[in-house]
Amino acid sequence: MRKRRGGGGLVYSTDRGRICPGCRRSEAECVCRDRSRQRAPGAADASVLVSRETRGRKGAGVTLISGLPLDDSALAALAKMLKSACGVGGSVKAGVIELQGEQRDRVVGLLEAEGIRAKRSGG
Question: Which CATH class is domain 48-120?
Fold first, then answer.
């Protein structure tokens, strides 16, 4: 699976993971000098959004946590912690954590306890 930006190059590939926009190598193999474009794993990020969605799920709502600056293994570990703390099921898809049901308030509190600034999105 490959994703491309509108006018740019390759952004993500299942073969290599996230791609550095400067040198077009995987972020782990990046050799370019412009490291400011890369997000540091574990850094607090103001663009972490906690939202709710029902689209394509026959009315069943899920809580989505997007914008987390974590690698795949850290994202899976955070998802496991959130699922057990909320007592629900869920998954990680394309860098977005999905939790079953309406969990926005609880998730924002849990993320802030972990040191991650998160915003509640939607009504």
Answer: alpha beta
